[in-house]
Structure formats: structure tokens, C-alpha cells
Design brief:
Blueprint lengths: L7 H27 L9 E3 L7 E7 L4 H14 L4 E6 L11 E9 L2 E2 L1 H9 L1 H4 L4 E7 L7 H9 L2 H6 L4 E6 L1 E2 L6 H10 L4 E2 L3 H16 L1
Parallel strand pairs: 2-3, 2-4, 4-6, 6-7
Antiparallel strand pairs: 1-3, 4-5, 8-9
Helix pairs in contact: 2-8
């Protein structure tokens, strides 16, 4: 039997199916690479609800580490007798109700996350009338050296130019591969970023305590 001649219609059907399968496979790989596990960003209120002194600790966090630092700061501040609200920046709706504001952010591409930098810019008029402290959480300080502290301080230059803070601090962060996308994990490995939790909770609480004394006395 002579070989069957492939019609133009059959050829287009076969190649179209193959191309579609390839596109679907590529799309699946892209989705897998960019998929990020769901991260819950903490929001809590600490202290006596009847206290007249109210403090806001607001933060921008990509994978939750900075939110946990914000929570530790909030708990410490509340131990001094204040009511403290801890929440992601995108949940903040009422700044004038606070006597002191703490703003924190993780670092991406050597900068505060956009929502944190934008928050300071958009609320500058109000924030300049309220004692405002900044804290930065970054893996640069996984190795706490004078050079790395200087580098971490430089990450805040654009925000500091918009509004000078009453106090500022820089803390080491955490890299948990389970909280990152495949792409983020690959990039961090390529840069040699250490994996683990490098947060110094005593240092975080001590800063919160000293800053309370400085801004709320």
C-alpha cells in the first residue's frame, strides 16, 4: 500500500496541536516558576484599649518576615502602657489617631518595597507632625559588619529624603525557601544569599524599648 499523503488540513491540525501543547507546557512552567506560596501578614492590637496613647506599627512585607518583626516591636511598645496597632501598610486608613508611627519594610532591589516608600510620600504632611520611626529588614545584615550596616542604611536614602525619621534601625531578616517562588529561590541561590532566620529578637525589642523612651517621653 502506498504511503498516505498528508493533506494540508491534516498537517495544520497536527502542527497546531503540537504548538498548542508546547505553549501550554511553557505556560505551565512559567506559572510554576512565578507561583508564590500564600503568606499571611499579621495584624494585631496590643495593650489596654482604654489607653490614651496610641501607636501604629505599619509595615510592608513580601514573605512575612518583616511582619513578624513588626509584631515583636508592637508587643514591646505595648508593655510600656500604650495601645499599639500592628498592620500591613495597605490596611492603614486613619493616621491622625496616632501619637507615634513606626514604618518598616523589607528590601527588594536595594530599596524599600514600593508600598512603603509611597506611603511615606503620600502621607508626608501628616507624618511630619507625628514622631515617625523607620525600621528596615534585610538579608544584608545576616552578617552584621560596619560595612553592611552602612550599606543597609543607604537603602533608606530615598525615603529619608522625603521625611527624616525620629529614629531608624536595620535588622537582619529571614529567608525561608518554603515562602518563596521557584524564581525567587533561584535568584537568591545565584546571588549566594544565605538561607535561614538571622533575626536578633533581643536587638529588635531593645530598639523598640529605647525608641519608645525617645519618642513617647
Amino acid at each position: 500500500m502506498p504511503p498516505r499523503t498528508l493533506s494540508r488540513r491534516d498537517f495544520l491540525k497536527i502542527t497546531g496541536l503540537t504548538l498548542g501543547t508546547g505553549v501550554a507546557a511553557c505556560g505551565g512552567l512559567t506559572a510554576l516558576a512565578t507561583y508564590s506560596p500564600a503568606v499571611t501578614l499579621p495584624a494585631s492590637t496590643f495593650g489596654d484599649q482604654t489607653m490614651s496613647k496610641k501607636i501604629l506599627v505599619a509595615y510592608a512585607s513580601k514573605c512575612g518576615s518583616t511582619g513578624e518583626v513588626a509584631t515583636a516591636i508592637g508587643k514591646t511598645l505595648a508593655q510600656n502602657g500604650a495601645r499599639v496597632d500592628v498592620m500591613p501598610l495597605n490596611k492603614v486608613t486613619d493616621l491622625p489617631g496616632y501619637q507615634v508611627v513606626f514604618i518598616g519594610s523589607a528590601i527588594r532591589v536595594a530599596k524599600w518595597l514600593p508600598e512603603a516608600a509611597n506611603f511615606v510620600s503620600e502621607n508626608r504632611t501628616i507624618l511630619q507632625r507625628i514622631p515617625t520611626a523607620y525600621f528596615t529588614v534585610c538579608m544584608t545584615l545576616a552578617e552584621d559588619t560596619p560595612a553592611n550596616r552602612t550599606k543597609a542604611a543607604g537603602f533608606m536614602d530615598p525615603v529619608r529624603k522625603v521625611l527624616a525619621p525620629a529614629a531608624e534601625a536595620y535588622f537582619a531578616g529571614q529567608v525561608d525557601p518554603a515562602r518563596l517562588s521557584f524564581f525567587d529561590n533561584t535568584m537568591l541561590k545565584a546571588k549566594g544569599t544565605p538561607v535561614g532566620d538571622f533575626r536578633n529578637w533581643d536587638k529588635i525589642r531593645d530598639w523598640a524599648q529605647s525608641t519608645y523612651a525617645q519618642t513617647c517621653a
